[in-house]
Each structure stands twice: as C-alpha cells, then as structure tokens.
Amino acid sequence: MNIQVRPTDQAPEGATHPGARPKLSFQAKRRGKAPTHLADFDLSGRKAALKEAGLPAFRADQLSRHFFTHLNVSPEQMSDLPAGSREKICGLLLPKLTEQSAAISADDGRTVKHLWQLFDGAQVESVLMRYPSRTTLCVSSQAGCGMACPFCATGQMGLTRNLSTGEIIDQVRRAARAARDGKLAGGPTRLTNVVFMGMGEPLANYKTVVGALHRLIDPAPEGFGLSARNVTVSTVGLVPAIKKLAQEGMPVTLAVSLHAPDDNLRDDLIPINSRWKVGELLDAAYSYFQTTGRRVSIEYALIKNMNDHAWRAQLLADELNARGRGWAHVNPIPLNPTPGSIWTASSKKDQQVFVDTLRRNGVATTIRDTRGSDIDGACGQLATAVQKKMKER
Ligand code: SAH
C-alpha cells in the first residue's frame, strides 16, 4: 500500500489563508548592521582597524588570544593591555553582540539550547550537544530564514536579516566557554564540532559564513583552530553557492537537505527546488566531493506517508550510485513533528525499511538522533515558542 500525503495537502503553519504557498525570499528588509567586531576580520584586518583608531597593531594578537584562545571578552581580565586604553580597545573590537534571553537543558544536561538576543532585538538559537566522543554546536547564520520549507519552524518565520560573522562566531565562543567551564553534564570538555544547522540558510549569507568558516578553522589565536572536517555547512540546495564553496580551499563537510529524491515531491517540499532540481543539486554535491575529498552528508527528514516510501529509498540509492560509490552518507532523521498536522514522523517500521533499502544498495546510512526534541530542539522551535509567549503577555 502506497499512501501519498502531499506537502500541499494543508496550508503551511501560520498561513493567513488556506491557499497560501510558501514564499522564497533572498532579500531581507534593510536593517542596521551589527557593530563591527574582531571576528569580522582576519588578523591583518584587525591590525588595520586598530591602526586606523590610532592604536598599536600588535594589540590585535593579544586581543585575538583573549577571544579565540581564552574565550574571554571582559576588559578586566586583560591584564596584558594597558589599563588606560583597555576600554577603548575593547569598545572598538569587542562590542557585546549576544545577550542570553533563554537557556534550557535536556538529555540529562548533555544538551543545552540557548536563545540569544542580538543588538537590534532579533533572536537566534544555538544548541550545544555532548556526545561520547565529541561536543557539537549547532549555530544560526540568519535571524529567520527565507527558504520557506513548510515543515521547518524557522521557515515559517520568514527572513529577518543576515547575521554578521561576529554574531555567528560569538555563539561559538560562548558555547566553547560553556563546554570548557563544565556547563554540560559530564564535566568540562572541549568544543570539537560546529554545524550550520540552526536558523537560516548559510549559503544565502555566503560571504559572512565563509568568514565564519575561516575563524573556526584558522589556527589559534587567529581563529579557534577547529579541524575543517568537524565543521559542517548544511544547505537546502543553492547550487551556485555549493560550487563556489568547493573552491574556497576549506575542506569543510557539506550537508545537503534533500528530503526527496524526485522533483515531483521536492518541488512542493523544498521551495528552492523550483530553481535547482534534484539532478543539478546532486551533481553539485558530487563535484564538491571530488574537489574537496570530503564525503557529503545527505539529510533526509522522514515524514509519514510523504517521503518515506521504499521506492523513494531505492530511487535515492540509484541517484547516488549513478554518480559514484561511497561519496555520500545518508542521514535520515525522524521529522520533529508539528502536532495535529500532516507533518508527522514516519513509523519505526517504514523508517527501518527505508534505511535497509539504502544499505542494501551499498549506501552508508546513519539515523540521526533527535537530540533535544523535548526542548523544541528542531530548528526555530524555541524562538517561535518564546515569540508566542511574548505576544501573549
Ligand atoms: N537551511 C539549512 C540549514 C538549517 S536546517 C538547510 O536547509 O540545510 C538544518 C536541518 O534541519 C535541515 O536539514 C532541515 O531540513 C532540518 N529540519 C528542519 N525542520 C525540521 C523538522 N521539523 N524535523 C527534522 N528536521 C528538520
């Protein structure tokens, strides 16, 4: 039996009329820019900014060490800077970018989700997750998102604005500090992985995200010195930007949010599929693998009776294998459901058949865990819940 639920069977959540369709947008309304920050620049840019303000360039090395190595932004703790100019230096390059507006933990304290308020009141989320052999932060790259995917809470908010490199990187500094200071159950640990799977479409904020990738990977103290393979950029499928990213010389891991192997379904499930089709997207993903040597992750949220059919698993395997062997790794994840809607998770049985079909065809497949689903772990759900509460107040 092959029941087919269509993404169009119900108006997207929050729609104003029954015939409403998700709307793509690449441009946010004009808003002020976040204050300039140390992390917006590479080391030479930091030196230039100090020089321009009449300060010695070598202070850039000291400041970088405070920020990227010691994860510190309080002037009081910067005893290697002259007391007289500390405030001026920090005011220039370390303005406060993020203010904590909520924090909740889950999974016995191994997951912590933060909601950050930015300089203009915009709010973004990040989620810190401890695993036995790694600690991962999921960061936001935009406030809201313009990609309008009907199953994604952030997609329903629309795009508020792009984050700055500093705003992305400050989420990371705070998480690295929380991990170091033992704020996760299990004691102090080191932040090892960063995934761009929070709010926003990272490749729609391309230049800023590439800047953030440099800060993550550049050796300390110019950057955090993370291993490029431990940094993942997740995209809904902006094909030209995937091609550009492959040329940046940073072998970060690419994740593609595919969610359907056929255009017929993906056209309705992922609005950007109207511009770049499944075939073009998989071609771009495969050439990313060829250029960087990094195996690509294929993200696939399993949605009951919509995209979880065995024939779709077979089609996905065929599409991947047609391009090459062993270049992609499929990560099915049970949909984080919206109660009372067509957006609900697959049954365990269908999930298993889906996974078995891929594996039988030689495709490496790992079910992604649903960390923090009890704290609205999926993308945008915390910000939405907080917004609702504020409106009710
Ligand atoms: N815009 C980027 C990154 C942010 S979303 C992208 O689309 O890849 C990170 C991942 O969470 C994506 O794979 C997205 O499709 C998925 N996602 C969004 N809402 C979800 C939900 N309700 N359940 C499960 N996964 C979801």
Automatic annotation (TrEMBL):
Function recorded in the entry: Specifically methylates position 2 of adenine 2503 in 23S rRNA and position 2 of adenine 37 in tRNAs.
UniProt domain Radical SAM core: residue ranges: 131-374
Gene Ontology cellular-component annotations: cytoplasm
Protein name: Probable dual-specificity RNA methyltransferase RlmN
EC number: 2.1.1.192
Catalytic activity as recorded in UniProt: adenosine(2503) in 23S rRNA + 2 reduced [2Fe-2S]-[ferredoxin] + 2 S-adenosyl-L-methionine = 2-methyladenosine(2503) in 23S rRNA + 5'-deoxyadenosine + L-methionine + 2 oxidized [2Fe-2S]-[ferredoxin] + S-adenosyl-L-homocysteine; adenosine(37) in tRNA + 2 reduced [2Fe-2S]-[ferredoxin] + 2 S-adenosyl-L-methionine = 2-methyladenosine(37) in tRNA + 5'-deoxyadenosine + L-methionine + 2 oxidized [2Fe-2S]-[ferredoxin] + S-adenosyl-L-homocysteine
Residue positions binding [4Fe-4S] cluster: C145, C149, C152
Any GO BP: tRNA methylation
